[in-house]
Structure formats: structure tokens, C-alpha cells
Amino acid sequence: MAAREINPMLKSALELGPIVAFFVAYLWIKDDVFSIGGRDYSGFILVTAGFIPLMIVTTGLLWKLTGKLSKMQVITLVLVIVFGGLSVWLNDDRFFKMKPTIIYLIFAGILGFGLLRGQSYLQHVMEDMMPLAPEGWMKLTRRLCLFFFGLAVVNEAVWRTMSTESWVWFKTFGLTAAVFLFFMFQGDIFRKYGEQDDETPE
Hints:
The structure is a single chain. The protein has helices at 8-29, 43-66, 71-90, 94-116, 121-126, 134-161, 164-184, 187-193, and strands at residues 33-36, 39-42. It is mainly alpha-helical. A two-stranded antiparallel ribbon has the order 1-2. Strand 1 (33-36) and strand 2 form a beta hairpin. The longest helix has 28 residues, at 134-161. The protein is globular, with a radius of gyration of 19 Å. The termini are far apart. Mean pLDDT is 89; it is low at 197-202. It is a multi-pass membrane protein. This is Inner membrane-spanning protein YciB. Belongs to the YciB family. InterPro entries: YciB.
């Protein structure tokens, strides 16, 4: 299936909608306990159970409308199903809270493996968005590899030492802001290694 462009607002809604819905739903029922099939489930577990099919639907719609999914989107969906499913099945919120840790460790591992081979796997994913010289891609990849590893460590620290509500706030806003700020502070790489078309019309 050939890749297709869709409305950026619709794309953002499909990508971020499940996260926002999870956050709002959790705040709505976070203090409630639900008895289903003779077992008591917290609001967090119930919201997680709803988040899984929502992610499947929105990711499927993205694939249907655009004709493609990034490796990051596929890995994220698989881990949501696996770890979210374990949390619901075992009635244990720890599995879902570990999901970001696993995701970031996988991304850090993939980038790190490429660096050991002298390659920037990040370049293959983002080259069309940010044209950089090879040296720039390698430097940005090293930084992003360390950044992902750092996020994994921070996520582990937050969910293990803080309340579930604090983790939900951190997951929804803290991690998103951290990624945004990371790229905001990479201006030195973009200025130094950004490739521009030097051809001038005759």
C-alpha cells in the first residue's frame, strides 16, 4: 500500500487521542473500584483495559489512511497490548507502568546497535524530515540513544517511588515535554550539520 498524506490535525488526533483519553478517563474514575466477575479492579486497571482496543483502532485507522506505520508505532502498539493485557489479566498495574521503560530501552538498544556498527539508524527514519550531514546524524543518534536510556531510568524511578496518579501525570505530560525539549536543545547540531541546497539558479 502506497503511503498517503492526511490532514495533520487528524493525524495528531489519532496519535495523541488515546493518551489524552486515558488521562481524562483515569482522573474521572481513579478513586473508584469496580467489581467484575467476582474480582475488584481499580479505576487504573479499567482505564487500561479500555486503552488497549482504543490504541488498536486508532493505529489501524492511521495505517488505513496513510498506508504506512513507523516501526516505533508498531513496537508501541505491541507493547501496549502485551503489557496492558498483563496488567488487566493479572490485575496488576505494574506491568503497564513498565511499558515506557521497555519501549525506551528497545529504542536505545536499536540506536546503540547501529552506532556500534558505525551507522545511524535514526537517519533512515528521519532523513526526509531533517537533512543533516552524516556527522550530524551520528552525533544526534548518540545523544538520542543516551536520552532514551535516561527516560527509561527516570520512568522506573517515578513509578516505583511515587503514586499511580503522579505517574499518570508524568507519563502524559512529563515524558512528552522531555522529548519536545530534547529536540529543542539540538539546535547546535542542526545549525552546524544541516544540509542546504547550495545550487543557485543560472
